[in-house]
Design brief:
The protein is mainly alpha-helical. It has one domain. 69% of the residues lie in helices and 0% in strands. Helix 1 packs parallel to helix 5, helix 4 runs antiparallel to helix 5 and helix 5 packs parallel to helix 10. The mean pLDDT is 90.
């Protein structure tokens, strides 16, 4: 089996680890039966408090960073006629796919934002990444609606990846991540439109 296929499988399986579910179960609750029912960090914040939600976000972030890092460092250019960007982009996509469709939970997972940020941490130039993160944080603090800030950031993702790399493969990766994450947020979009999307309390810390 080629290294590329190994990284594809590894990226998906790593992305499938449902940290929000596992941590909430360790605390005696099933996060899927609380709040929005989502296993991501935002719902964990609502159920367990900010510190546990941040822990989930960090672990989900790492899930995205590791496969992207391995792909960049081990899928060397001379092995691929079309260049290294396409296999790297495909591997980078797999942890987000795994997070949203985890094999361990019947393919019903989270929204993929923290895992996508892990991928971006590896792939994006810092001059592009930092303003993107600052804008995301600013919108989150002002609106206190996590899904709104997430969707707004993802809307700029294809452009950010293109400006950072001028790579068609990364641009297509950005489009794929944008489409996948907006699809995962379809219920949030409906609630935002109806002004029913709940806000998060960042001061909750139990």
């Amino acid at each position: 089996m080629s290294l590329f296929l190994i990284l594809i499988i590894f990226g998906y399986l790593l992305g499938s680890i449902p940290w929000g579910y596992l941590i909430s179960r360790a605390k005696g609750i099933d996060i899927r039966k609380i709040g929005s029912g989502n296993i991501g960090s935002t719902n964990v914040i609502r159920a367990l408090g900010t510190k546990w939600g941040l822990l989930v976000a960090i672990l989900d972030f790492i899930k995205g960073a590791i496969p992207a890092y391995l792909a960049i460092n081990f899928l060397t250019p001379h092995r691929y006629i079309a260049g290294p960007d396409w296999p790297i982009a495909l591997v980078a996509f797999t942890p987000v796919l795994g997070h949203i469709f985890p094999v361990w939970l019947g393919f019903k997972g989270g929204k993929g934002v923290a895992t996508t940020l892990g991928v971006l941490f590896i792939l994006l130039d810092w001059k592009i990444l930092l303003p993107l993160l600052f804008a995301w944080l600013l919108v989150l603090v002002i609106s206190q609606i996590s899904s709104f800030s997430n969707l707004l950031m993802m809307a700029f993702l294809p452009l950010a990846l293109w400006i950072s790399s001028f790579s068609l493969a990364y641009f297509i990766l950005g489009l794929a991540l944008f489409a996948l994450i907006w699809w995962a947020h379809r219920e949030n979009l409906k609630r935002i439109k109806e002004d029913r999307e709940p806000k998060i309390n960042l001061k909750k810390s139990r």
